[in-house]
Amino acid sequence: MSADQYNSQLTTFYKAKVEAGVQLVERWILARLRKRTFFSLGDLNEAISELLARLNDKPFQKLEGSRRSQYEMLDRPALKPLPTSAYEFAVWKKCRVHLDSHIEVEGHYYSLPYQLVSREIEVRLTAGSVECFHQSQRVAVHPRSDHRGRHTTIPEHLPEHHRAHLEWTPARFLNWALEIGPQTRDLVRRTMERYPHPELAYRSCLGLLALAKRFGPERLEAACSRALALGSPSRRTVVSILDKGLDSQPLPEPESTSTSSSLPAHENLRGPDYYQ
Fold this sequence. Notes:
With 276 residues, the protein is α+β, with helices and mostly antiparallel strands. It has helices spanning 3-33, 41-57, 67-78, 170-180, 182-193, 202-209, 211-215, 217-229, 235-244, 258-262, and strands spanning 91-96, 102-105, 108-111, 120-125, 129-134, 137-143, 151-152.
């Protein structure tokens, strides 16, 4: 007999026991009360309690004792206290810690200790919290957030800048970008300046530098130069420029009107040249 067959038979056996217990209660309690009229819930509960006590104290026909004696001897010693908190529904999933010491859960980023970079962890999601476990040990807990694209960061989870043994540092990204060109380096620097911690920008910087393999270093440098000139130093703008081939066009001339010079520099203010 296979394990599945055994479990199926065991389930059928206990299901029959439960149904027999329900039938017994219907005969000994519900059937006896079906013709009585009750004018309050208290009176009904009192009548049910009386019949239930008589049923539990009724001696077995083929065994010694009664249901109450069996309960006192077998069930009561095995009972445990009820949980102090109510049951909370949770969903488990596996994530890998990115090099910026964060994991992505439903579009939001949560920090973990930097020692766990590249490690796979288990995440327990509830309505209000995000618990992170590594090798069955809880390593971080965060309040759950529904803000996509944002970060929930504990500063102690991030590495210190002076740790020489760290594989990823802001200086390394800047030097890597400088191998492509000075405009790419400046755009990487602007990207890191938008975050409270440079480590949070590593994911975006990697995505930007990876465009050199797809489009070539020369085109990426030209696209970064155009994105900076448009006041939109972001990877999304660079990708749009490369996809549309705008990196081969001359850079837009700076407008001399007072209106354009008074506009603040912001990545969402791209100007008319962006839409050509």
